[in-house]
């Protein structure tokens, strides 16, 4: 629970106590508490909606950057997966849609696999290392996406 709402309830209860001392009924406290709870629910709903909008915009930005240059922005897949792990069914669903549409467009037409330990110890060119990184990122993020769906 946040500190600020607790302090507000404390202030409200103090006001109610003061009004009881002056002879007013306890109903003032109940009205103030109901008003406070209603306002905090509205603020929480607005916060959730704003957070969803921010995540939706971030997913759109990452998806666009991934499609413009997949080899350079391959780490966007990991970020999309991380955002999709967040709370909220809508965010997960939207993240999976972005992930799968982007993944469908950037996956190579040949069979890919993770390099073996022996292959990792070999001296290879920068282009091969870059290809291995690209392919391994595709595989690991796809695996995370499959786990996320379950």
Automatic annotation (TrEMBL):
It comes from the Eukaryota. One of its GO terms (biological process) is DNA replication initiation. One of its GO terms (molecular function) is chromatin binding. GO terms for cellular component: nucleolus. Residues 55-144 form the Nucleolar complex-associated protein 3 N-terminal domain. This is Nucleolar complex-associated protein 3 N-terminal domain-containing protein. It comes from Kingdonia uniflora.
